[in-house]
DNA sequence: CTGAAAGCGCTAACAA
DNA sequence: TTGTTAGCGCTTTCAG
């Protein structure tokens, strides 16, 4: 391996000068610089970022713990984050927590061990007692993404409550009174907030929330499919359904299709989360779409600010969703 | 920051002993070990992987350069790779090349600077003259993924030629003679091979490949949509279409829908690449599905082998696709 | 079974 | 404008 020392020797300067031309950290005479550059060119020297990180005390690296890389939603998130970071000269290390605290702990520990300069976490349920305290303890700048947690740190996520309420209201406006709901994974804020939005819409019209109409799809499309299947094949089924995240939507649609029911004539449907290819689904889904791009870039902005030393009060940012009015709700 | 020295002092041993209990690299008396473990516990010590990497000469890190993180196909690939690596004790650093060599060069340079122990690359067009040689020069183990390049190194990708041929044949078997094709990005092997498969099917039946029926969607669904729109709204349009990757499929379907045509009655359709939610599309697509999981894990296997020092002849692995016979082709 | 000591390749005072 | 030097925190011979 060619080191800075080699380059220095060939250029007839000190290692420190080579370092400075490489980093532009102090003025170097044009001639000397050219000699150094020539030597670099000649040897094909590459800086060793590991050594650099150790000496400088920062790695220019940011860790991201995400809960499900296979979910296209998170795919876009990773992309947005990666983009914003690389623009700022950082690289991204990703880990998948599979929405499981133990797994998340492994991921974040490994990230911490690698001396990441900052960390973005989409917390799993239970995160606040196992992994987040440890991150805070090390003093690593942290921003939470997607889901909130009751802890004093920067957070950015989608607007949940009023978006879910708006979806539900839309169904009410169309005359539906028995509206089923399919919730996502229990124990995370987005599930709770969206469900609260659903409840608020109902009670706002003087309709009680009926337990039998509340389904838990956990995080799995399969579970959602089973639950919806059961509900929709029973007596006295609802005339409309609202799904609270994209995985639940898939499960719901499969169940409905499996029963030979059609949307919206047999049952109206609206959902939280949009799909890139929503236009190709049949029926076209009325949905509240998250602005994943903005969520990702905002998270990075907040993080960079902290990494630069800002220690003001934590920000909690909610990115609004967009209502896509298509026809699964029964409107034409 | 608490260092190994601190732990050593508290435990009343040398740093070297602490290192050995941490890594299990030599026998340590039970009592001493316990003292060390107590000190670690007490101080909340975390190993510094950066220092460790510098001293040991390896980072336990693998780089992945991917062409489009937003494409769900690559999302699953990243997931499979991350999983396999983390099982083997490595962490993944991802970079997005946006299917552009210059961008790819930046990504891989940064990965190389960070001393990754190995690298997985989904090469962009032009990779073989700009970025791959540099990787090879540094001696970093490399495996190519998704697309092949004419260079002597490990590669793993989907089967392209005969899968595309089979799709096209299926259309021919149903009596179609004028079959349009929508190609992906020019200059990458998967595009070429799949197109060759299409041609082989036609010429195998004595049908000439007609230029006007060959569309280039580049990498963009928008371009694909425009091209298909033009073709299908012209005179003498084909009776069937084959799309050669998922982005092209989206574009094609949008164009067809936009024209008010229906599949398969107005035009039959088959595609390379499946969608996770293919069942919810209307019509349900007849497709050749890649086994992304296997591609990812195989790539990691090959890489780990190289990283362990194997320097046998390069492997070129083709993972077969699965033919999903649904009804966009016109079969019931 | 354990410790001392020499680096890994680089950065950043401090001097000159 | 440049060089010298002392680390960064760890691994790993080599002795004991």
Separation of termini of chain A?
Answer: 67 Å
Please give the number of β-strands of chain A. Answer: 12
The oligomeric state of the chains shown is: homodimer
- What count of helical segments of chain A does DSSP give? 13
Strand order of the largest sheet of chain A: 2-1-3-4-5-11
Task: Assign the structural class of chain A, choosing from mainly alpha, mainly beta, alpha/beta, alpha+beta, or little secondary structure.
Answer: alpha/beta
N-to-C order of helices and strands of chain A: HHHHEHEHEHHEEHEHEHEHEEHEE
Overall average residue pLDDT of chain A? 95
Radius of gyration of chain A: 26 Å
Keywords (chains A, B): DNA-binding, Repressor, Transcription, Transcription regulation
Domain HTH lacI-type (chains A, B): 2-56
GO molecular function (chains A, B): DNA-binding transcription factor activity; transcription cis-regulatory region binding
InterPro entries (chains A, B): HTH_LacI, LacI/GalR-like_sensor, Lambda_DNA-bd_dom_sf, Peripla_BP_I
């Amino acid at each position: 391996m060619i080191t800075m020392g080699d380059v220095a020797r060939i250029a007839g300067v000190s290692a420190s000068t080579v370092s400075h031309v490489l980093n532009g950290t102090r003025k170097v005479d044009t001639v000397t610089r050219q000699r150094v550059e020539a030597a670099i060119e000649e040897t094909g020297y590459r800086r060793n970022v590991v050594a650099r990180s150790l000496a400088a005390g920062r790695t220019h690296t940011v860790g991201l713990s995400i809960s499900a890389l296979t979910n296209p939603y998170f795919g876009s998130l990773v992309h947005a984050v990666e983009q914003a970071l690389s623009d700022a000269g950082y690289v991204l290390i990703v880990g998948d927590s599979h929405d499981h605290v133990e797994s998340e702990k492994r991921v974040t520990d490994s990230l911490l061990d690698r001396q990441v300069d900052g960390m973005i976490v989409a917390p799993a349920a239970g995160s606040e007692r196992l992994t987040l305290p440890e991150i805070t303890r090390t003093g690593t700048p942290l921003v939470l993404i997607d889901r909130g947690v009751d802890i004093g740190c920067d957070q950015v996520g989608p607007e949940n409550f009023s978006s879910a309420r708006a979806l539900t209201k839309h169904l009410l406006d169309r005359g539906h009174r028995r509206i089923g709901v399919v919730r996502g994974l229990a124990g995370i804020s987005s599930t709770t907030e969206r469900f609260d939005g659903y409840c608020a819409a109902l009670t706002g019209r003087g309709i009680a929330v009926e337990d039998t109409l509340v389904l838990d799809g956990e995080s799995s499309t399969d579970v959602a499919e089973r639950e919806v299947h059961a509900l929709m094949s029973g007596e006295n089924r609802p005339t409309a359904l609202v799904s609270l995240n994209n995985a639940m939507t898939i499960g719901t649609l499969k169940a409905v299709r499996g029963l030979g029911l059609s949307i919206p004539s047999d049952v109206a449907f609206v959902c939280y989360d949009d799909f890139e290819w929503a236009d190709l689904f049949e029926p076209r889904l009325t949905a509240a779409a998250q602005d994943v791009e903005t969520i990702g870039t905002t998270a990075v902005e907040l993080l960079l600010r902290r990494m630069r030393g800002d220690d003001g009060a934590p920000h909690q940012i909610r990115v609004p969703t967009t209502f896509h009015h298509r026809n699964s709700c029964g409107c034409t």
